[in-house]
Amino acid sequence: MDISAVDLWQRYQEWLYFHSGLGLYLDISRMRFDDAFVAKMQPEFERAFVQMAELERGAIANPDENRMVGHYWLRNPDLAPTPELKQDIIQTLEAIEAFVAKVHSGEIHPPNQPKFTDVLSIGIGGSALGPEFVAEALEPDQAPMKIHFIDNSDPTGIDKVVKSLEDRLSSTLVIIISKSGGTPETRNGMLEIEYAFTQRNLNFAQQAIAITGVDSNLDRHAKSQGWLATFPMEDWVGGRTSELSAVGLLPAALQGIDIREMLAGAKEMDIATRTPNLKDNPAALLALSWYFAGNGRGEKDMVVLPYKDSLLLFSRYLQQLVMESLGKEKDLDGNIVYQGIAVYGNKGSTDQHAYVQQLREGVPNFFMTLIEVLEDRQGPSMEIEPNVTCGDYLSGFLMGTRAALFENGRDSITLTIPQVNPRTVGALIALYERAVGLYAFLVNINAYHQPGVEAGKKAAASILALQKQVLAVLHQETAPLSLEAIAAKAGASDQIEIVYKILRHLAANDRGVVLQGDFAKPSSLTAMISAS
Ligand SMILES: O=P(O)(O)OC[C@H]1O[C@](O)(CO)[C@@H](O)[C@@H]1O
């Protein structure tokens, strides 16, 4: 499509979406679809709008897990399918606010300290990415509490957090977030921090709270240990759509972020994205663009570049939301489809000095989403050059990248918000949640399960079970054994490579295992339990 500047300006105006309440613009004019494509997609969208309305009314939209999908109810409890669910949502929100007020006032405080000073949030995936994104985007200058995260089973990462908190560990409120209440990384983080508390004679239970599914292992553990509080994570809220449940709201409120405004922004966006009319529905416009870019098969990656440092983690947040929702082997009819859209990005203009070279000139396997924030900063800016500020440069870089990409046949979407604030962040979250939901209906997949992740978890569990067997074998021997012999004795002859890697890891960590031989030739190695 070779288009003149005048026609492009026309196309821009024809496709521009503007939400006056939020001051949000969506521009898909630089996606090169034509009218025939839109006409072809129209009936597909009509179907998707009907399916979406059913989902919001409480239909089982996650057939595998036999669950409703209710994150939309969180910001408008009146939509909940039963009065009980509505009441639960309202009560949880009120409980969060009451708890946070007591923490901020010092009514709830750690033993021997007048107030909690810090929050340590331990969780992974959907139980971390939303709170991390929001903390980075919205942390107030004078936050009443500073937040820290553990979102991995990496001992060095955990040590770093503990070290940074050291003197304030005694006034740190620890939140363990896990819907299932059984995710190993989160459990490990909890045990490590509990240990750090014990070593310092601190009482973990009196500084801990849990956000988890009712009656999960974590819920029972927290209650039996007398933790400060527990907050529910409803089974109809998926991890990656949980930012506006207790998972995201409690940490945000503790940091002094206005969570009612986040909910209000999301609610306003939900209303806009419920419109069953393609051109008036920003989520449908996004889904249309994604479908066009990747042929409805994810053939192109979604690069997300917010031109605002505080939105740095948005692409990481979207990576889970989009890829865990859309990355599926089978469609709803059981056909093999290998669906998905790969998402990556950090921020502009920083990334222009990294990989944008390839985007402009290299393999054209992506489409871009540029996120623009109209307000440069609060207060006036100095002039870098006559009549030019730093923010003008950032804006110029964004427009320049958009133009340079388009010139070279690379499509882009531009999303513009007036400011990064709780309302616009809530709206962004809601916009992408709905776009993912609509796109999933278009390509006929279940966006609300994650069977692929389970396979990795099971494999990891079997490796740890094998490690125990390997150690048991070694403890029965006094002479060094070859890897082959160890694997055979552990009943895992077909797993010799894993046995080797387990032993190499144990040997590298003073775990009582000695490996000897030529390290360039693993088959020459022998292992034994060290003498000491
Ligand atoms: O909140 P949980 O149950 O600990 O799960 C954390 C994350 O793990 C996953 O289940 C994938 O392993 C995500 O979907 C989820 O957000």
From TrEMBL:
Entry-linked InterPro entries: G6P_Isomerase, Phosphoglucose_isomerase_CS, SIS_dom_sf, SIS_PGI_1, SIS_PGI_2
Active site feature: 324, 353, 457
Keywords: Cytoplasm, Gluconeogenesis, Glycolysis, Isomerase
MF terms in GO: glucose-6-phosphate isomerase activity
Pfam family, one: PGI
Protein name, per record: Glucose-6-phosphate isomerase
Pathway annotation from the record: Carbohydrate biosynthesis; gluconeogenesis; Carbohydrate degradation; glycolysis; D-glyceraldehyde 3-phosphate and glycerone phosphate from D-glucose: step 2/4
Protein family per UniProt: Belongs to the GPI family.
Enzyme Commission number: 5.3.1.9
SUPFAM superfamilies reported in the protein's UniProt record: SIS domain
Keyword Transport: no
Function: Catalyzes the reversible isomerization of glucose-6-phosphate to fructose-6-phosphate.
Subcellular location: Cytoplasm
Primary localization: cytoplasm
Catalytic activity: alpha-D-glucose 6-phosphate = beta-D-fructose 6-phosphate
